[in-house]
Design goal:
This protein has three domains: 2-30 and 73-267, Penicillin binding protein transpeptidase fold (Orthogonal Bundle), CATH 1.10.3810.10; 326-395 and 549-715, DD-peptidase/beta-lactamase superfamily (Beta-lactamase, 3-Layer(aba) Sandwich); 399-542, no CATH class. The chain contains 25 helices and 20 strands. The strands form seven sheets. Strands 13-7-6-18-17-16 form a six-stranded mixed sheet, with helices on both faces. The protein has a four-stranded mixed sheet with strand order 2-1-5-14. It has a two-stranded parallel ribbon with strand order 3-4.
Length: 724
């Protein structure tokens, strides 16, 4: 039987040799027939894929000055050209993987037949693939079929057909590329373990150096890795990595590229890799650090929303110049954390800052008391707290801005029109209830909504104007304005127009199930849930801001008002270029004249007294010595579960939010900076932690670089009520 087995193996070897020879000659002498044509087409298609599908590269995110802040990647690869590879690396790789690399033309016939004999006789399996063939295989695995397990399996299957196709492509490559180009191509594609691809990334990650500066033992270690990067990982398997490195050194001696004495000396050296783990950057926005991570996350979310896929973003090799002002972002972070400790359970504090403008609204800072990261015990989170709809408690009275703007637009009131400020107000337009209503009184109609004020407003009850009401924030005045508007529709529409777009389309925090689509469990958006439907004019409490929101969008509302009523998407993108340096257009929503400029300017004047004596943020403004013209509005929700402050100057606008996040019972108690927590009965207000956060950051940012500018002048047509 053993003789028969040997005979069969010998016959198989002869057949294999014949097939390989015929296959190699095919592209030279040509062939006829369907099978030959199909084979040729397959080779051409694969060759085309190698040329047309670029390797994944690292995308770099920078701040507004071009300073890198984060890298996004699927494969950590730093491409190099042939002139950036030193001789030690070239000869280490050639000696261990393909010592006749400079002699053959893509296929090493001698090595192929030797491997066939060795494999057929039961000796150790030998692949006999040249570096050119390995280049083809690695390109298919790491680039063309990246993420495609079926394709990767086909690219590695042990079959004559696969080997034949690979060899023919290798021969084609040798006619188009020089040996040095093939070597560089291989070294740019091959994996070195742990998402590290290519010699540029490997030199940095393993030795914190560049390919030009690799020493002989360093080059030998890296050359030895390509055969089995996981098995020879120097951090996990130092003994195997050492043995493999020493083997490469021996092969370099055999190949007459290294003296034996030098090889023996190098064998005695330690591996010398960087300690603990590879020196590679994080593969996502974690790399931006605890301060800039939220901004990086918004850059990613913004580009994905604009139509870029995550695969494109993480493999395209883009350079994304953001609008991040690192100094402003730092001031925002310091101020947010000064008010609420990063490890304070269940309380988030955020600040988002946006530049007003009629052509762009550039986001300059996105900060939170929490650090950006994955260690919850250290006060970290990867939730996009400053930008996402995570404040499910609501904005509180900052939504009175929208009722005011709607009333001005409809002619219901002007900014200096008198408003009613009773202690309680019963609306017969809206439904609901209210625990602030007196227990006795005239019979209520079937439709009623009662609201009371959070404080004593007797001092302004006589002679109050809409401007006064915006500064002091009595609830009754704004529900009465909603009554005069007839429904919440104008206020909801105004909120969307001025900037609360994702917010109003979100069903964060719940929402009811649409009875017409219960089978689909369709949840209503905020605009649908709280707006008029049928005979229902909406919820009168809309103006009191109880619905979830995005802090960035609230800040952009102030930017819209200070831009003459021009809304632009809050963008974090200054420019995007591709791997070749060519500009990449980003699909962004066009700016819109959301409200007439005269209305916006007059509304700005109406919001200009919040920081003045009697205004709800006067204490926070005075504490930092604020002395600039500004707009502002505070907000606090029922039960003190969240509070907000929105404001701005002609150069910079933004919003701060303090809200419950992640649990906790009761409201938020504010006993001063650094002592804000969840407690049984809350006492936080927009004029406390949120306003202190806003003024604390804005004072330092503005005084450092911005002149004092006046607010726009009001327009007579919006100063008093009446037909427009």
């Amino acid at each position: 039987m053993r003789k028969a087995d040997g005979l069969f193996k010998l016959i198989g070897l002869c057949l294999l040799a014949g097939v390989l020879v015929a296959g190699m000659l095919f592209p030279v002498v040509g062939a006829a027939g369907v099978m030959s044509n199909q084979a040729s087409e397959t080779v051409e298609k694969t060759s085309s894929d190698l040329a047309d599908i670029p390797p994944p590269l690292v995308t770099t995110v920078t701040d507004s000055t071009g300073k890198p802040i984060a890298t996004l990647y699927d494969q950590y690869r730093l491409p190099i050209n042939e002139n950036q590879i030193n001789e030690a690396m070239k000869w280490a790789l050639v000696s261990v993987e393909d010592k006749r690399f400079y002699e053959h033309h893509g296929v090493d016939w001698q090595g192929t037949l030797r491997a066939a004999v060795s494999n057929s006789t039961g000796a150790d399996t030998q692949g006999a693939s040249t570096l050119t063939q390995q280049y083809v295989k690695n390109y298919l695995i790491n680039v063309v079929y990246r993420g495609d397990q079926v394709g990767q399996k086909k690219a590695q299957e042990q079959s004559i057909a696969r080997k034949l196709k690979e060899a023919r492509i290798a021969i084609q490559l040798e006619t188009k590329l020089t040996k040095q180009q093939i070597l560089a191509g291989y070294l740019n594609i091959v994996e070195f373990s742990r998402q590290i691809y290519g010699i540029g990334a490997a030199a940095h990650a393993y030795f914190n150096t560049t390919p030009e500066k690799l020493t002989v033992p360093q080059a030998a270690l890296l050359a030895g890795l390509v055969n089995n990067p996981i098995n020879n990982d120097p951090w996990k398997h130092a003994d195997k990595a050492t043995a493999r490195r020493n083997l490469v050194l021996d092969r370099m001696v055999e190949n007459k590229k290294l003296a034996k004495a030098d090889a023996e000396r190098f064998k005695g050296e330690p591996l010398g890799v960087v300690p603990d783990f590879p020196a590679k950057p994080p593969a996502n926005c974690i790399g931006a650090g605890p301060e800039a991570g939220f901004f990086c996350q918004y850059v990613e979310d913004y580009l994905l929303k604009s139509g870029m896929t995550k695969d494109q973003l993480y493999t395209g090799g883009y350079t994304i110049k953001s609008t991040l002002d690192e100094r402003a972002n730092h001031e925002a972070k310091v101020s947010a954390e000064a008010q609420v400790k990063k490890t304070q359970p269940y309380v988030a504090n955020t600040l988002s800052l946006v530049k007003p403008g009629k052509n762009r609204h550039e986001v300059v800072a996105l900060a939170s008391n929490r650090d950006y990261g994955q260690d919850q015990d250290a006060g970290q989170t990867t939730y996009a707290l400053p930008t996402g709809v995570y404040n499910t408690g609501g904005a509180g009275s900052t939504y009175k801005i929208f009722t005011s703007a709607a009333a001005m637009e409809k002619g219901v009131a002007g900014i200096f029109s008198p408003v009613q400020v009773p202690d309680t107000y019963v609306s017969h337009v809206f439904t609901g209830g209210g625990n602030s209503c007196p227990p006795t009184g005239p019979p209520l109609r079937s439709r009623w909504y009662c609201v009371g004020n959070a404080g004593d407003y007797s001092r302004i009850a006589q002679g109050a104007t809409l401007q006064t009401a915006l500064a002091t924030s009595p609830n009754t005045a704004f529900v009465e304005l909603e009554d005069r508007l007839g429904s919440t529709a104008p206020g909801i529409d105004m909120a969307k127009r001025l900037g609360m777009r994702d917010t109003m389309a979100s069903n964060a925090g719940g929402g009811t199930v649409d009875p017409k689509a219960e089978s689909e469990n369709k949840r209503l958006s905020q605009a649908e849930l709280y707006g008029p439907r049928g005979n229902n004019p909406g919820y009168g409490a809309f103006t009191l801001g109880f619905s979830p929101l995005s802090g960035l969008e609230l800040g952009n509302v102030a930017a819209t008002i200070l831009s003459g009523g021009v809304w632009c998407p809050p963008t974090p993108i200054a420019a995007v270029t591709d791997r070749n340096g060519a500009p990449v257009p980003v699909k962004e929503a066009a700016c819109e004249q959301a409200v007439p400029e005269a209305l916006a300017n007059t509304l700005a004047v109406g919001m200009s007294k919040d920081d003045q004596p009697g205004g709800t943020s006067a204490g926070a403004a005075s504490a930092v010595g604020w002395n600039r013209p500004m707009i502002g509005k505070t907000g606090t929700t029922q039960g003190n579960v969240s509070a907000t402050f929105v404001g701005g100057t002609p150069q910079l606008a933004g919003a701060a939010m303090t809200f419950k996040f992640g649990g906790g019972q009761g409201g938020i108690c504010d006993a001063g900076p650094g002592n804000v927590r969840v407690c049984g009965s809350g006492n936080i207000f927009g004029g406390k932690a949120p306003a202190r956060t806003w003024f604390g950051a804005m004072k330092n940012i503005m005084d450092a670089s911005q002149p004092v500018l006046p607010l726009p002048q009001p327009d007579p047509q919006y100063m008093g009520g009446g037909p427009r």
